[in-house]
Amino acid sequence: MNWIILFVAGLLEVVWAYSMKRSEGFTVVTPSVVTVVAMVASGVLLSFAMRSLPLGTAYTVWTGIGAVGSFVVGLFILGEPASATRIAAATLIVAGILMMKLASA
């Protein structure tokens, strides 16, 4: 169950990153509110997951999901460039997340 909670916390990190981008420096109300709510919810869920998961594993997986998820949102929703180097970097992050998960089994 803690892995599911951690995954949801990571997805909420993607939500707040995207909504922060849309908030235009916290000048647009709705995405600004979404950013703050998603940040708090993500942090709370991360803290729940850390009750039984090691700090290093939980934090690495959480930030990795947020980083790769934000990268994917940037590619497909914001039209950011998809260079081979950026894709390779995201692939390495995913590999690191999987290794941390396997190391915690």
UniProtKB/TrEMBL annotation:
The chain crosses the membrane at residues 27-46, 58-78, 84-103. Keywords: Cell membrane, Membrane, Transmembrane, Transmembrane helix, Transport. The keyword Thylakoid does not apply. SUPFAM superfamilies: Multidrug resistance efflux transporter EmrE. It holds the Pfam family Multi_Drug_Res. It comes from the Bacteria. This is Guanidinium exporter.
